[in-house]
Amino acid sequence: MATIELTGDTFTETIENNDIVLVDFWAAWCGPCRQFAPVFEEASNKHEDIVFAKVDTDAEQELAAAANIQSIPTLMAFRDGLMVFSNSGVLPANAVDDLIRQIRELPMDDIRAQMEAEAKGAAPAGGGCGCGGCNCGANNG
């Protein structure tokens, strides 16, 4: 599957209506972004069940600001509408493949329970998803 361009108008709908979405925040003038682009495109061809999307931070400045993008490239991963990973910098192909494997294996029911408990001010039993690579709060990696 080829990558798609996201805008402020399509971002939320894309995240909410797909199981797994990887978003590359980039700009044309950014050397590291150009370096990461073929890695991202290759991954999109290998993992056709995942939505691979790009956000041009120059064209979508409000969206980049809302996503708190501080440097580019930034890769964000969403599963079931939740951001589970965010990283600035270039990732090699094997790291992207490993990230995708980890995202597929995430125990989403446990993560949702943890988020609900944190929202209520209590920690869940068991203490996290254990993935070590996401922003779910487990940080066991």
Helix percent reads: 25-40%
Question: Which structural class should the secondary elements be placed in?
Answer: alpha/beta
Q: Which overall shape is indicated by the principal axes computed on the Cα atoms? A: globular
What's the CATH class of the largest domain, please?
Answer: Alpha Beta
The CATH homology group name of the largest domain: Glutaredoxin
Strand order of the biggest β-sheet: 1-3-2-4-5
Number of separate strands: 5
Specify the number of helices: 5
Radius of gyration computed on alpha carbons: 15 Å
Low-confidence stretches: 137-141
Strand content: 15-25%
Report the end-to-end length measured between terminal Cα atoms. 30 Å
**Helix and strand run:** EHEHEHEEHH
CATH fold-level assignment of the largest domain: Glutaredoxin
Count of structural domains: 2
Largest sheet: 5 strands, mixed
Annotated CATH architecture of the largest domain: 3-Layer(aba) Sandwich
Describe what you observe in this structure:
This protein has 2 domains: 4-105, Glutaredoxin (3-Layer(aba) Sandwich), CATH 3.40.30; 107-141, no CATH class. It is 38% helix and 20% strand. It has helices at residues 11-16, 31-46, 61-66, 93-105, 108-120, and strands at 4-5, 20-26, 51-56, 74-79, 82-88. Strands 1-3-2-4-5 form a 5-stranded mixed beta sheet. It is globular, with a radius of gyration of 15 Å. Residues 1-105 form the Thioredoxin domain. Keywords: Disulfide bond, Electron transport, Redox-active center, Transport.
SSE arrangement:
Layout: E1 4-5, H1 11-16, E2 20-26, H2 31-46, E3 51-56, H3 61-66, E4 74-79, E5 82-88, H4 93-105, H5 108-120
Parallel strand pairs: 1-3, 2-3
Antiparallel strand pairs: 2-4, 4-5
